[in-house]
Amino acid sequence: MKRNILITGGAGFIGSHVVRLFVNKYPDYHIVNLDKLTYAGNLANLKDVEQKPNYTFVRADIADLDEMRRIISTHHIDGIIHLAAESHVDRSIKDPFTFARTNVMGTLALLQAAKEYWESLPEKYDGKLFYHISTDEVYGALELTHPEGVAAPFTTKASSAGDMAYGTEFFVETTKYNPHSPYSASKASSDHFVRAYHDTYGMPTLVTNCSNNYGPYQFPEKLIPLFINNIRHNKPLPVYGKGENVRDWLYVEDHARAIDLIFHKGKVAETYNIGGFNEWKNIDLIRVIISTVDRLLGNPEGYSEKLITYVTDRPGHDMRYAIDSRKLQSELGWEPSLQFEEGIEKTVRWYLDNQAWMDNVTSGDYQRYYDDMYTAR
Ligand code: NAD
Ligand code: TYD
User: Fold this and answer.
1) Does ligand 1 have an atom closer than 6 angstroms to the CB of 207?
2) Which of 15, 58, 118, 229 satisfies CB 3.0 to 4.6 Å to 9 for a cystine?
3) Residue 211 Cα, ligand 2 centroid: separation in angstroms?
4) Cβ(203)–Cβ(119) under 8 Å?
5) Closest atom of ligand 2 to CA, residue 240
6) CA-based nearest residue to 129, from 11, 6, 271, 35
7) Which domains does the chain have, with CATH numbers?
8) pTM surpassing 0.90?
9) Region for residue 364 given its phi and psi (left: phi exceeds 0; alpha: psi -120 to 50; beta: otherwise)
10) Which ligand has its closest atom nearest to the C-alpha of 11?
């Protein structure tokens, strides 16, 4: 079937994997990648698909309502996968207004433009879908009731060999929203707008909330690529607080596969949590990154441990995120494809093998940006 699909934020980390998957897997679909190309957007992430006949790139700002109207109607868009966002918590602490503008007003402009176009068609909302990509961070923070870890109650292929959980609670689709950072507050607000367009205007919408992603093409301000790059350049590794915060990590291509499945088979107006039951305490994850990078660079075991530098904690730092993704597994049959140990090895290798990509995106500005925020203790 022919379709015209708008993917926003396709030049970013997760978006580039979603664009690549759709362009290659669905030659009959026309994929329009809409991206403003902020510091986080990089067309080098899509070099391998840019010449494909079913791919178009459009540079635009999602907060520009007239542009959204024009692009959606010009390309006869019938499906939207919305990833464009400001995505880094530390930046949101410094500059919350940019987050409200893009994540809230931008999502609203996209919803309104889609509504006007779809309502103008004879078939109206039939065969249309607005799929909004969100985060587990909207649910707030879980408690670290088991700081030493207990055997995880559920596992998937993505779980690490250790299979640990650091608390008894997990985020489910009905967990009450309780965001703490300007980033998560802006994403929560955008999620509410998406659901409001369904409930008020009957727009077919879907929301998914995913845990932390890792893999190739992630901007090196986020923990994993930042630390791989710093180890390579013998630079300090700034660990916020005591390094005890817990995150639940999923390989980015497994998230992209989940998005593909949900876009095609998900039930309208539903929410699905996406995660791999793969909790890691930051400091334990950092030690895995150090030992993997050292091994691949031929350094002696433990060589880069000296780079660990404990710094002041992130303000309002959420203690633990842990996703329960059993609804997605049981209703749509999604399974992660990679175990964490395989994923992290692939990821470290990719960053070490793609130094030119890293040099291209590393202007150094982002590091200076935080110098006054996180100081060594
Ligand atoms: P990213 O920061 O790597 O990419 C964001 C992209 O959006 C960039 O290409 C940027 O240029 C574009 N963009 C920003 N503002 C824009 C605007 N006003 N108009 C048009 N384009 C704009 O982000 P990511 O990590 O790939 O995250 C993508 C989405 O997934 C976000 O909505 C994020 O909230 C969500 N998410 C991310 C994670 C994660 O671990 N990275 C986890 C769950 C959900
Ligand atoms: P990050 O990659 O920014 O993702 P998020 O805050 O959205 O979960 O950070 C992951 C974890 O690593 C988080 O607990 C903060 C911590 N962290 C550090 O300790 N040092 C750093 O330099 C960064 C970027 C993150």
Assistant:
1) no
2) 15
3) 13
4) no
5) 19
6) 6
7) 3-376 (3.40.50.720)
8) yes
9) left
10) 1
- Cα-based distances in Å from 217 to 11, 90, 279, 285: 10, 19, 22, 19
pLDDT (tens digit per residue) in 39-72:
999 999 999 999 999 999 999 999 999 999 999 9
177 counts as catalytic: no
Catalytic residue among 61, 136, 221, 254: 136
For residue 364, pLDDT beyond 60: no
**Total Cβ atoms within 10 A of residue 74:** 12
pLDDT recorded at residue 153: 87
Tell me, what's the pLDDT at 367?
A: 39
| Residue of 244, 318, 345, 277 lying closest to 92 (CA atoms) | 318
Q: How many CB atoms lie under 10 A from the CB of residue 170?
A: 25
Q: Which residue type does 214 have?
A: Y
Q: Which of 6, 21, 38, 186 for mutating ligand 1's site (highest number of atoms within 8 Å of CB)?
A: 38
Token pair in block for residue 287: 């030690």
Q: Is 331 a catalytic residue?
A: no
Q: For ligand 1, say whether the CB of 248 is within 6 Å of any of its atoms.
A: no
Q: For 216-221, what is the mean pLDDT?
A: 97
Annotated catalytic, 183?
yes
